[in-house]
């Protein structure tokens, strides 16, 4: 169901919030849905189920603009993105169904727990030293492992996107990092997968959920500008030795949001 809520003064903050989310979302590989959901529920006071569908719809322009920008800069691995995306479509459709089967407090708690687990996973992966791949492993075996990882993380991302309206960025990034892709390819490819997942999740929620056009208009008026600038600033940035720090900062933010969602259920 699509509807338009009445204007409230606090909505005037949404373009600025949208700009920041669009800017950093496209620089970190996310569509912004992960941050839209807590903003809508914790700051605006939107019911969780409506926030999920609205968050997904507001993520679409960021995913579209950000993906195109990163594609032009050569920051997307299309083959890996397709692998994640195909599995993500299935997960997104299932997730939208799950959302309508659980209560609002349960939805917030599950989102909080999911966020904390993802943060822990990223921290552990950052601390652990990657082992060199054994030379005797065949190319066929390595390809099977790659397909397995892509399918698992892609399905999980789609499931998360459809259930929580967050675009499933965290498992996408975790999966891409596990494939040893450089940070810039991780960010660009992640946005492509986010776009695919979001399109199908929005379609499913359009049939089963509630989407607030007023909130989308205010959020996207700023987020599109941020998404346009993000890939350009990111391509000019020099990450190098700061790559590990980027992972740690992202993990800390994800964990903090998860705790807030649980506390304010």
What does this structure look like?
The chain is an all-alpha fold. It has one domain (2-126, 135-264). The chain has ten helices and two strands; from the N terminus they run βααααααααβαα. Strands 1-2 form a two-stranded parallel ribbon. The radius of gyration is 18 Å and the shape is globular. Its main location: membrane.
Low-confidence stretches: 129-137
Q: Would you tell me the structural class of the helices and strands?
A: mainly alpha
Number of strands: 2
Number of domains: 1
- The coarse silhouette is globular
The overall average pLDDT, rounded, is: 78
Note the gap between the termini: 24 Å
Q: Give the biggest sheet.
A: 2 strands, parallel
What is the rounded Rg? 18 Å
SSE arrangement, N to C? EHHHHHHHHEHH
**What's the arrangement of strands in the largest beta sheet?**
1-2
Number of helical segments with 4 or more residues: 10
Q: What is the helix content?
A: over 70%
Kindly estimate the percentage of residues that lie in beta strands according to DSSP: under 5%
Question: Key terms for this structure?
Answer:
265 residues; mainly alpha; two-stranded parallel ribbon; 77% helix; globular; TSUP/Inactive_protease-like; TM_pro_TauE-like
Write the layout of secondary structure elements.
Elements: E1 2-3, H1 14-28, H2 33-44, H3 48-72, H4 78-99, H5 104-127, H6 139-164, H7 169-178, H8 183-208, E2 211-212, H9 213-236, H10 243-263
Parallel strand pairs: 1-2
Helix pairs in contact: 1-9, 2-3, 3-8, 3-9, 4-6, 4-8, 5-7, 5-10, 6-7, 6-8, 7-8
């Amino acid at each position: 169901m699509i509807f338009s809520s009445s204007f409230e003064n606090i909505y005037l903050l949404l373009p600025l919030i949208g700009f920041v989310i669009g800017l950093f979302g496209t620089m970190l590989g996310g569509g912004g849905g992960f941050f839209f959901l807590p903003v809508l529920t914790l700051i605006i006071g939107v019911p969780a189920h409506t926030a999920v569908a609205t968050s997904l719809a507001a993520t679409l322009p960021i995913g579209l603009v950000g993906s195109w920008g990163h594609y032009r800069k050569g920051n997307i691995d299309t083959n890996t993105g397709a692998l994640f995306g195909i599995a993500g479509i299935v997960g997104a459709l299932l997730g939208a169904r799950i959302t309508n089967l659980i209560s609002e407090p349960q939805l917030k708690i599950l989102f909080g727990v999911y966020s904390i687990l993802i943060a822990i996973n990223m921290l552990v992966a950052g601390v652990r030293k990657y082992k060199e791949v054994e030379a005797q492993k065949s190319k066929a075996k390595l390809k099977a492992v790659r397909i397995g990882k892509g399918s698992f993380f892609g399905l999980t991302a789609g499931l998360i996107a459809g259930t929580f309206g967050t675009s499933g960025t965290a498992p996408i990034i975790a999966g891409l990092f596990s494939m040893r892709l450089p940070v810039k390819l991780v960010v660009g490819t992640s946005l492509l997968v986010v776009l695919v997942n979001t399109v199908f999740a929005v379609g499913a929620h359009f049939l089963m959920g509630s989407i607030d056009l007023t909130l989308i208009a205010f959020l996207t008026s700023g987020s599109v500008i941020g998404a346009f600038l993000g890939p350009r600033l990111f391509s000019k940035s020099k990450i190098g030795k700061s790559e590990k720090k980027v992972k740690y900062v992202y993990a800390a933010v994800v964990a903090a949001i998860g705790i807030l969602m649980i506390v304010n259920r």
